[in-house]
Amino acid sequence: MEGSGGGGDHFILVHGLGHGAWCWYKLVPMLRAAGHRVTALDMAASGVHPAGMDEVASFEDYSRPLLDAVAAAPAGERLVLVGHSLGGLNVALAMERLPRKVAAAVFLDACMPCVGRHMGVTMEEFSRRTTPEFFMDSERMVLETSQGPRPALVFGPKLLAAKLYDRSPAEDLTLATMLVRPGRLFVDDAMVKDETLLTDANYASVKKVYVVAMEDASFSEEMQRWMVDLSPGTEAEEIAGADHMAMFSKTRELCDVLLRIAGKA
C-alpha cells in the first residue's frame, strides 16, 4: 500500500505479530491528507504477502520488505519509520542497517530494544510479566521450516477482543478476526539473540520516540516505560484511552502525534 502526497516526509508503517498492512487503513489517508507520503508494508508471510510463515527462514527474511523499502528510498528523502508491537524489532534492524536513511523512528506501543542487549529481551520481559493463560483462545502450532520445527501463534477472537481491540470499534475487531495470520516471535533466531547487533554508532544515533498507549491491556504502561528507560535519550509521547491497537482506537490522536514527531525530526 503506497502513495505520495506533496513534498512532506515519507512514513513507513510496520505492523505487529499476525497482522499486516491492512491494520493502518484508517491512519494512511489521514497522513496523506496532511501532505505526506505513506507506505504501509506487509512483512514476509503477513497480510497479503504470498509466502507462508513456514517458508520464512529467519528474522532477516521476515524483515526483508522493510529493509528493501528503506534501502530503495531516494537520497535526501526523510523517512519516519513507525513500528507497532513486534514491528518495533523490524524497525530497530532497519535503523541499525541504514541509520542515515532514517530521520526518526517511532515505536508505537512496541518492542523497543536497546544497545548492549539482544532484541529478544523485550519479549522475555513480556513473558515474565504474563502467564500462559494470557493468550486465551489463541492457537499455538509448530511449523516445519528449513531451520527445523519452529513455534507459531494465531491470535484467537477472544484474545483479540479482550486484550488487543478492547477499546477499538467492533468493525475493526471483526476485520482482525478475518485477517490475522500465524505469526512468529523469532526468539530462537540468531540475529534476535545477538547482544552485539545494535550499536551506538548506528541504532542509537537515530532519533527515537516511544508512543505509550495508556490503556493497553496487553503491554502495560509500566512495561512500555521500562523499554523507554532502557534507551536513554528516547522521547516519549502518550495517547490517553488507547488500547493496544491505537491505530484503531485513537486514530486521529495517533495521526496528530506522528505529525508532531515528523515536524520536530
TrEMBL record:
GO terms for biological process: jasmonic acid metabolic process; salicylic acid metabolic process. This is AB hydrolase-1 domain-containing protein. InterPro entries: AB_hydrolase_1, AB_hydrolase_fold, MES/HNL. One of its GO terms (molecular function) is methyl salicylate esterase activity. Signal peptide: none annotated. Residues 12-255 form the AB hydrolase-1 domain. Pfam families: Abhydrolase_6.
